[in-house]
Amino acid sequence: MKKQFIKGLVVSGALLLLISCKKEEAPAAAVIDTNQIKEEIQAKENEFAETYNSGVTKDIGYHADDAITYPQNSKPIIGKTAIVEFLKTHRDTISKGRKLNFKTEDVFVSKDGEQVVEIGYYKVTDSTDAVVNSGNYMSLFVKRNGKYVCLRDMSTSDMDMPNE
Fold first, then answer.
1. Average pLDDT of the chain?
2. Are 141 and 58 in contact (CB under 8 A)?
3. Which of 16, 33, 63, 110 is most buried when burial is the number of CB atoms within 10 A of its CB?
4. Ramachandran region, residue 94 (left: φ > 0; alpha: ψ -120 to 50; beta: rest)
């Protein structure tokens, strides 16, 4: 009888121990507001277009120092300094008098919010607002020092380029 009582006590104690051990819950993942990030990326695109359209070449914090851009009909341009020079030359020789704008169509945000892939549409219009070029682009943004910067981008036209 004493043995059964001790067995019962041991089994009951083991069950109580198992029941009372609370499984550690993983910390809640940070809530990612995709709409807010999409607005933030669109604002970066708007600032880029406004700066480009103004003819002023300045650092607007769009590209990362180690960015690479893959422009149409050209070799990759490596580094922010080279990208700014390429954009200045492109602006001075091809795009003067034209306006560029971007429309962020979709963003794909990493679980931690540190990377964003943007899919968008661009349009270039002349002084009469006629579309002279348009197409799609994809950009990879990374968060550095609390702000998104473009690390990689590429675009493709959806129309034939006019003879310049």
1. 83
2. no
3. 63
4. alpha
